[in-house]
What does this fold into?
Amino acid sequence: MAQPVVIRNLNKLFDSPDGKGNRVHAVQDINLVAKAGQLVTLLGPSGCGKTTLLRMIAGFEEPSSGDILFGEKRMNDIAPNRRDAAMVFQSYAIFPHLTVYENVVFGLRLKGLSAAELKTRAERVMELTGLTKMAQRSPNQMSGGQQQRVALARAIVMEPAVLLFDEPLSNLDAKLRETMRVEIRAIQQRLGITALYVTHDQVEAMSISDLVVVMNGGVVEQIGAPIEIYTRPASRFVADFIGKANFVAARVTGAGELEIAGNRYVTGQDDLPAAGSEVSAVLRPEAITLSAAGGEFRGSVKRVTFLGNVAEYLIEVEGQGEWLVDISNPGMAGVFPEGSQVGLSLVARSIHAPAR
It folds into this structure.
């Protein structure tokens, strides 16, 4: 049965490798609730503490302070094999000398299940993960995506309350990653398992998560649904890390209202500072429109990249520096060549000023 995962004031300090007695605060004062059945992504750059946090939840690292709970049960002193959690590793960690079937049932054999129960559970999970016809294959006869399915099947056949993923798709090519993340999300939702998923891939996090936890330097920058993280970033770091962003100087002129280079925009943002405050506003590239005629700003196209469904522009905007602009369906809209003079307009409701 799925369990919520509750993290309270969690910290992890490591001894510094310089040998001078200094300590590195890898995870600092983390508070998090993953509701039963949710998929929560821990997202951030390398070294931000996301894998250390996941390893503490799994029991492979001991917290320096704070609490980890599955439901109402404190896990801090519970051994990893007794936590009712299963982990899918980046390296797959499947046994090369065992068949697919034997890899899947390995953990069940250790639990001493009857042959009938073992067979029933294994066959159900192998069907769910599309491995039924590969039961007698050796892992070295399988593609990376198929091996990842074996690792996933071996984890979920244990029917854990919590499923943990440590960058499980990073070894796959781009197209296979896209396919596998859809499959993982579909299986997690079908089974209703609580899952925590570590990745540094923003697209992966945005596409599969109920909740995204953005980490930086061992601390949580923001927790929210993918659309909230993207459209209402809490900090400049989050805005810059999630997708692409232009940052422009702005001044608060009233409730939910910003002025940029003399142009006023009603953004609807309800947490702006007092009127007169100077802020840095985020302009997402897709929230800027281009035209050959007028606009609030004028600019010159420095670079255009045609990507099929999107044309990506780098535009030198008069008085503002360089802006990134994305225009969808360029096959219909047409493409401005390099050197073109263009007008730019902003979508007011898409402008956001992070609090920090």
About this structure: The CA atoms of residues 250 and 262 lie 9 Å apart. The chain has a mean pLDDT of 92.
